[in-house]
Amino acid sequence: MAIAGPAAAALASLKPDQVTFLQSLEKAELHAHLNGSIPIAVIQQLGKEYVNSPSSTRGDAIYATIERLIYSSAANHPWGTLRIFKHFSVKRRKRDWVSRCISPSTPEETLKLLSFQPDRLGHATFLNKEAMDTVIKNNICVEICLNSNLLSKTVTALESHHIRQYLKENHLIAICTDDILPFRTSLLAEYALLLAQPPLGLGLTQDEVKGIGEMSLRARFTMGSS
Ligand SMILES: [Zn+2]
């Protein structure tokens, strides 16, 4: 699938050896919505199967399927409602992970949610200082989706992105895609946003990017963890 947008621009700005470095980097995707990550080829296949009426053309069916999937993704995702806050992940017990999308509207609700001691937060876009301090103090991993944040305008620019605060604190983060289909991105391109020089990227060093990749591996929910 062709990628586009800020992440694609960042990737296109890299030298071949930088791309090779990112390709070989060990990293984990920890935040991707299933209905927004379906490859186009699979959607086309679903579209073919959707043809169940003599009056439907193949093109109509594919279009209807794509529209349905995109609508579903938007409706289920906070950017669909423009109330992006976070996804909330907490380990209940082995192999039983709860990941919910919650949109609290007050700082009190946010602190209440954080008191449940989640293991990871998705986006965490609208945390105030007290909430962010709590996240850092409790070592809660934050799943960062840069391209998604920029395209959905929950963050106006990389310069003001909350990732900078977490990097300053050397806090646990995981770089993720969110939805590769509507956001036309890839994990490689998301990491390119770290490595590319400003204004296209954050201009981090390869060692710093390597450290972020290692963080994502540490933040995985694994079968043996408790
Ligand atoms: Zn998300």
UniProtKB/TrEMBL annotation:
Catalytically driven reaction(s): N(6)-methyl-AMP + H2O + H(+) = IMP + methylamine
GO biological-process terms attached to the record: adenosine catabolic process; inosine biosynthetic process; nucleotide metabolic process
Bilayer-spanning residue ranges: none
InterPro entries linked: A_deaminase_dom, Ado/ade_deaminase, Metal_Hydrolase
Cofactor(s) recorded in Swiss-Prot or TrEMBL: Zn(2+)
Superkingdom: Eukaryota
Keywords: Hydrolase, Metal-binding, Nucleotide metabolism, Zinc
Pfam families: A_deaminase (PF00962)
Domain Adenosine deaminase: 116-216
Single annotated GO MF: metal ion binding
Family per record: Belongs to the metallo-dependent hydrolases superfamily. Adenosine and AMP deaminases family.
Protein name (record): Predicted protein
